[in-house]
Amino acid sequence: ARRIIIDTDPGQDDAVAILLALASPEEIEVLGITAVAGNVPLSLTAKNARIVCELAGRPDVKVFAGCDRPLSRRLVTAEHVHGETGLNGPKLPDPEMPLQDRHGVDFIIETLRAEPAGTVTLCPLGPLTNIAMAFRLAPDIIERVQEIVLMGGAYFEVGNITPAAEFNIYVDPQAADIVFRAGVPITVMSLDVTHQALVTKERNDAFRAIGNRAGEAVAAMTDFFERFDLAKYGSKGAPLHDPCVTAYLIRPELFTGRHINVEIETRSELTMGMTVADWWGVSGREPNAMFMGTIDSDGFFALITERLARL
Ligand code: BDR
Ligand code: CA
């Protein structure tokens, strides 16, 4: 199994990504979950991550709180997408499992130092603050990372928080810049991919028809999540972004992309957080990321439905 740390700001789609990972122990071993400020403030994302672990029947998973704000910019949140709690939709009980005492960034550093080099994959599903902070404080861990598989950025689908930028990168562009320059193998699930992973009514019904708590909760989440955006996504439903990351670890053949150079805009306010993706290789700059462009969305939703049924 791939051994991973999930870095997350739940978020309904983060929740589905976590459930998919925890439902797939043959392919994925979750070493721990680090929460970061993003969709909602840190106190809520750290709480939501534990709610999701308990929903998966896994109160033993270690959940850590990480950074409560971006490296240098003011925190921008997305209650307009996810609701006040970040996890609006289903009625889920407050978590009983503890939040770990250690800081999430320390957990990332200590885990990468303790485990054999090249055996731990980082899976960021929110702003990249915790990962960048860990790389800054402990540059020795960078070469020990097996791979970073993240949700963030866009090429053709450009922005969902500004016309130029995707939310996770926009919230902490300085952190994203550090991560994309680190020299670690990076796989990017951009809006180009996630906007092909739309929760249609049939797909939502299939979640509900699973008939267990997880299926019911996920159906309620995807009922709520980004439904405000029907004008944008039409009757096809809203994109399920973050589970593309964990689905990739289980079934990489669902995705295709290109190994290209990606740089992050950190200076211009107009295009702040833009992922400048050299899809056509015109810059001559070294490729630093596997930038995904297509997904087999039927295969993706079938995988999630099949795995949620195991919970
Ligand atoms: C990303 O932003 C968040 O709102 C979602 O959880 C996802 O990680 C999509 O742009
Ligand atoms: Ca997220």
Automatic annotation (TrEMBL):
Keywords: Glycosidase, Hydrolase. InterPro entries: I/U_nuclsd_hydro_CS (IPR015910), Inosine/uridine_hydrolase_dom (IPR001910), IUNH (IPR023186), Ribo_hydro-like (IPR036452). GO terms for cellular component: cytosol. Residues 4-301 form the Inosine/uridine-preferring nucleoside hydrolase domain. It comes from the Bacteria. One of its GO terms (molecular function) is uridine nucleosidase activity. Gene3D superfamilies: Ribonucleoside hydrolase-like. Signal peptide: none annotated. One of its GO terms (biological process) is purine nucleoside catabolic process. This is Inosine/uridine-preferring nucleoside hydrolase domain-containing protein. It comes from Pseudooceanicola nanhaiensis.
